[in-house]
Amino acid sequence: MNGDTLSTIGDLARRTGLTVKTIRFYSDRGIVVPVERSPAGYRLYDITAAARLDLVRTLRDLGLDLPTIRKVVDQEVSLPEVAAAHAEALAVQISTLRLRRAVLTAVAERGSTPEETDLMHKLAKLSEDERRRLISDFLDAVFGGPGTDPRFAGIRNSMTPELPDNPETEQVQAWVELAELSQDPDFRAGMRRIAEDRSAEHAQGDVAVVRRDLIAAVRDQVGPALAAGLAPTSPQADPTVAALTAQYARCVGRPDDMELRRQLLARLENANEPRRQRYAELLAVVNGWPAPENLAPVLDWPIQALRARIPGWCADQNVPASGRA
Fold first, then answer.
1. First and final CA of the chain: distance in angstroms?
2. How would you write the pLDDT of the chain (325 residues) with one tens digit per residue?
3. Which of 32, 123, 191, 276 makes an SS bond possible with 142, Cβ 3.0 to 4.6 Å?
């Protein structure tokens, strides 16, 4: 081969921008092989060496290891095959880093204890099947298990978080908090009471219609009172409370009596439970849904109004005085 067409390591270094030491390193490992040596013993490379070195540098910048790069430049494996495998591996790494970042961010923001941090880390690392089992267990506790009333299937599905394959940090944080919340016994008991209320309402008709009509009744009757700054415990609020209970009685097809007011108060208190609202907010973040409406401002007023008008009601414990120990 004509030596005038060959390049020394120094020539390659100037052409590629790599150091002589780096090119010698690649040469020693058989990635860029000299075609011959000069009379003085210097390595000489043909015209393809620069192109190979450019490819090697690109693949190194993308994170490929040297054994894999050698197979690519020697055409033992195709570049598309290597790229696909490497992209898949990077996706796993990115997902892992996103989980770690979410947990560390949550720890920093919440001032978590070491025990809480450990729990959050374990929850974040759950597989998709493990996440589904955890939430399924929670929903079984709320709705009574797989054999529950099939009419609850839609509600159950609407309460199921579905963490995407490539979640944002906020979605991972929301999932972890939601998972923690779903394991809280008090929260489970409260959600179970709501499910039992809805089950009882099936006897009066479509539970979705009853709920929609109840919220509509609260908005219709309470909205003007709120706008007017009317105190819920004042005598001036009596007509608003009467109109609200009468509208609810029509919704459920029952007499507007004290028992109905107790039922309405219990329903409103269950619906206004802060952790229930938090679950809905977290669920929306995880599933990428619009943020749910916060009904607390409109529900607080009728709750206070009904408590003040039900004889023997213990406002501190939310139970009738006769039911206290």
1. 103
2. 444 588 899 999 999 999 999 999 999 988 888 999 998 889 999 988 888 899 998 888 888 888 888 888 888 888 898 888 888 888 878 877 877 787 788 778 878 888 888 878 888 788 888 889 999 999 999 987 655 667 677 888 899 999 887 778 788 889 988 998 999 999 999 888 888 877 766 555 544 545 667 788 888 889 899 999 999 999 999 999 999 999 888 888 889 999 999 989 988 988 898 999 999 999 999 999 999 988 898 899 999 999 999 988 754 444 443 333 3
3. 191
Query: Are 314 and 321 a contacting pair, CB within 8 Å?
Result: yes
Angle at 122 between CA 120 and CA 127, to 5 degrees: 120
Cβ proximity of 13 and 19 under 8 Å: yes
Asked whether 307 and 317 are in contact (CB, 8 A), the reply is no
**Alpha helix locations (H) across 207-295?**
207-227, 238-252, 258-271, 274-287
Q: What is the DSSP letter of 31?
A: S
- pTM recorded for the entire structure: 0.63
Residue entry with tokens 């910048």: 61
- The per-residue DSSP string of 270-289 comes to HHT-HHHHHHHHHHHHHHTP
325's tokens: 């120990």
- DSSP-assigned letter for residue 44: E
Name the CA radius of gyration of the chain, rounded: 34
Asked whether 18 and 12 are in contact (CB, 8 A), the reply is: yes
Contact 247, 217 (CB under 8 A): yes
Q: 45 pairs with which residues across the strands?
A: 7
